[in-house]
Amino acid sequence: MTKFFEANEHCALQMDAQDPLAQFRDRFFLPGNTIYLDGNSLGLMPRDSEEAIRRVMQEWKTQAIDGWLHANPPWFYKAEILGALAAPLVGAEENEVVCTGTTTVNLHALVGGFYHPQGKRTKILADELNFPSDIYALKGQIKLKNLPAENHLVLVPGAAGDGQLLDENEIIAAMSDEIALALFPSVLYRSGQLLDMPLLTKKAHEKGIIIGFDCSHSVGGVPHHFDQWDVDFAFWCSYKYMNGGPGSPGFLYINKKHFQKEPLLAGWFGCVKEKQFDMSLDFEYTRGAGGWQISSPSALSAAAVQGALKILLEAGIERIREKSIRLTEYFIFLVDRLLPPEKYNLTIANPRDPERRSGHVAVQGNGNIWRIHQALKAGGIIPDFRPPNIIRFAPIALYNTFHEVWQTVNRLKEIIDNKEYESFPAERSAIT
Ligand SMILES: *Cc1c(COP(=O)(O)O)cnc(C)c1O
Hints:
Layout: H1 9-17, E1 35-36, H2 47-63, H3 67-70, H4 78-86, E2 97-99, H5 103-114, E3 123-127, H6 132-144, H7 149-152, E4 153-156, H8 168-173, E5 179-185, H9 197-206, E6 210-214, H10 226-229, E7 233-236, E8 251-254, H11 299-315, H12 317-338, H13 341-344, E9 347-348, E10 361-364, H14 369-378, E11 381-382, E12 384-386, E13 390-393, H15 402-417
Bound molecules: pyridoxal-5'-phosphate.
Pyridoxal-5'-phosphate binds near residues 134, 214 and 216.
């Protein structure tokens, strides 16, 4: 592979020609005439997912109720099977991961099971830059314990500077003996900052704090080593970097040291498999991640996840990460080279160190940034916008090319040079 980047088109084409993951692009449905850079919000549809969904539709048609045990794989075991398949992506053992629920529902189930305010230790530690849904859920969990959320949710603010990044030292300093549980995102959804999960876990445990992570913005793009890091629990969605489909089931991880812990948001799919249909009124839960399921798995959308997982595992998470870093490095290189801040008023909001960021590039702008975003979209380039002033570009290792990155940054320059954004409205729409 070319060692250094150059700003010319040839360099982009050469990197594509030497890309060991290039063949995976054909395994996805690419929306026509677009450069899709929004895989951090909704990954593209894998061909394998379509095939897997067709299979379940056929099984449902022909086997009906028998599909629960006789489909391939049986719907009854689907959550555990997909959990086991995903385990290597996060450095876990097979029974520590299950495919179930959705991100926020899994947060409720896990925090509901792990948050036990006692004596002086009654608070939850989180951060001001997390995805709002997580914060709403944490406030709800505190209120469920009859405690006031105003002073029981301790939020670490954005670090000095532009407020888009967190300083791990400030998080650690906030780990007081009043904190019962800490929950952080692996990656900040605006700035793409990848938090130091092993360090935070180690420090939390030194202070006697249970710690969990929302890894929606990293699983499928970044390798994780939950067992090695000794994380207590984690959860993540499957529709971003995992390409599992809109609203597809999420995943959760439970460290095996907590297998005896009783899942309190209990449901019958958490039962020991062989006993679930005994219909006993005593909840004999599975000692494993499977015990934290609440409801029946959604066989159709789990099929989409299965197809997507097949590709992730074939490509290998280490190779995915390697290409992803190169794509974002290249993107940042081109922005630095072609769009000098004094003239273009754009800055990179990501950490510059590739080990400290996930898979998207956050370009922060001035008053025209929303209009620039619209001009990009009108021309077939699909990033996404996060208020107040960030465009996120996610070049995905499995299906984006270096040439697409080159085209995108050049287009960005053109839009600004020619003031094309001026023909777009300044007001925002509901979904960006
Ligand atoms: C995407 C994302 C969610 C989404 O929550 P759903 O319950 O799946 O709608 C929640 N938290 C974080 C950190 C996310 O990145």
